[in-house]
Amino acid sequence: MDWVCIGLPQLALDKRQREVADTTQPLALLSGPVQRRIVHVANIAAQQHGVRAGLSLASAQALCPGLQWHPFDPVATEQLRQRIAAWAYRFSAQVTTDFPDAVVLEIGRSRRLFGEWPELQARLREELRSWGITHRLCAAPYPMAAHVLAMAGDEFDAWGVDSHRVQAALGCLPVQRAGLDAASVLSLQRLGLRQLRQVFELPRDGLARRTSPTLLLQLDRMRGLLPTPVRYYHPPDQFDVRIEFDAEVESHLALAFPLRRLIDDLGLFLSARDGGAQQLNLFLAHEGRPPTQVVVGLLSPERDPARLFELARTRLEQASCPAPVRALRVQVTHLPPFVPGTQDLFDSRSQQALTWSQLRERLRARLGDASVQGVGMRAEHRPELATLAHATSELAVLPEQLRPAWLLPVPRPLRERVLRVLSGPERIESGWWDGADVRRDYYRVETTAGQQAWVFCAPGERGPYMLHGWFA
Q: 190, 223, 256 — which closes off a domain?
């Protein structure tokens, strides 16, 4: 089997930078107690001012007066790693998060779908960059070797799945960069060993007497002499992500950027699950008040992030908030199967033209759910009772009889002069059971103005006509 490790060396910083519009500002994450906050990690802009990990907050602010700082959140960082694992599930059913600061997946069985390692590597890099994730990639025949080489540094991220090249790369690693525990590294350095090649060349019995059994087990798994047991990742059954704001947000325009980030994450999640979302629940958190819920309902499942964002933003703009917003949460609990719509090979519509489903959802988002309805058919012969309005995702099936597109709510006398009769009569006699019985002969006629009307009169007569509808 062939394994790929997606190393995530600064995932906590990437998560915070994905939530801000300007990533060029100096930014640092802090850890430690409140009395003594120290820099956990800093971005490139802050490092250019001399801010580095381990500095106190006061020293970092002295070096960079405009430094933006936030507390390091390990829980939110792990949630982002789980979302990356859900995204990696698109490429392989064998994904594991057992290795720290990384996501590892097996790609040997995915080559028929995604091509060889160079092609898959280019695709992984492109999508991770678009997601704003700093990463290192390495492929190896064994999962632990892929993880060690990916986390060792950039000079090893291009190594392929060839066993001899991977063994040579492992031998070049310094022992302190081989992913070993601190006690094992110290014991090897005391023996005068600086590279893994020197460790591999030692007699196994002598090395076992001078080091711990854990070290031998790690080295064997790294070289593929022993299998590495892993627990495979299973994507969750629902999407629930929240973004906290540094300050209170009072404008809907300011919510567009974090909303787009959440919807993009939702699109990756739905693509990995091969499902769609038919209802999005948006929760706007307030200080000292219950959250405001905005429900985005769709008539059919959808997973295109652009369409979902447009509908969610439109609903969000129409929502009224009783107080400023402190956090935004997107929740999708039901994932129905998604069936992509079919398209013509030679589509003559312009690029700006909308499909029926896109137009329907956009109108519902702007005008409200009750303002856009479908037309359903009822088992009734009387025309004024044969149709009903209802919310549906399917187009109504027209009856076999030809009916006008515009049916008047109440018939009225035809005031235009009839030029000729095009079809008819069609006898409709029904309703005797409910006291509203009718007995009519319907005709399709053409008036002197060139219009085609649907009229009726008493059976056996030719007038006067009552107008009941117009044909397009």
A: 223
